[in-house]
Amino acid sequence: MDASGQGGLLDVAVDPDFATGENWIYWSYAEPGAGGAGTAVARARLGANGLSELTVIFRQQPKVGGSGHYGSRLVFGRDKTLFITLGERQLGNPAQDPGQTLGKVVRIRRDGSLPPDNPVWPGTALPGIWSSGHRNPQGAALHPQSGELWLSEHGPQGGDEINIARAGANYGWPLRSYGCNYGAPPGPACQLGGGAHAPSFVEPLSFWVPISVAPSNIVFVDGPMFPEWRGDLLMGALAGQAIWRLRYEGERELLRERVYEGERVRDVDLAPDGSIWFLTDSGRLLQLAR
Domains in the chain and their CATH numbers? Predict the structure, then answer.
């Protein structure tokens, strides 16, 4: 495992049938190898004596130098296939290349094989690609009604995004962004490709300008403690040191507010009682409750 920079252990997920005997756990991590490092996903059985039957079921291609933008959230779909979010390793252009899995969302079966209904991409595309044109998606969650995969993505200088990752869709990075290259005076004049994604690419549902809040993980509120927030999206922010609450009507943003400010929020999730738990970069585990 390459634990330098943004690398290391990246995410952990349990099998959707874990409670009924499929006692697999899955984890993503930065894997070193020829040419540098890349996001990989392994699984193993968890038993009384620890882990067994360890297998690597996915490797990002190609491995490259650098230590940033691994992406790497793991989310099981309702059909029990596994979505893997993958950053473009701070290289930009590979996000538009179907011959690489940098800057993509990949969808595989639990054993690493490929679902037959994945989208077909032109040219010599690598297998498993679900969507493309992503920069560094560090948050992912299934919508509680539609079951679609929602993402939070880092922009460059501004241009952080919320997207719905749909089969065969392209989200524009690095050709389009409401953000600017680092060092440019923030504002509309420097937005990449003019800012607007459509009609060539998919417009984000939400974006942040002129500076980045650096999104971390996301979760939909569906517990009993905050009934007035049911269905809203919570998003942690690193540079923004906050938790954002966003409400949507379909794909239109209706509301955006901070419900916590104070530290870099690395992860956010719901407890069974509906309280909101979040982890900060200082190592504190905090709770929002009433």
Answer: 9-212 (2.120.10.30), 213-290 (no CATH)
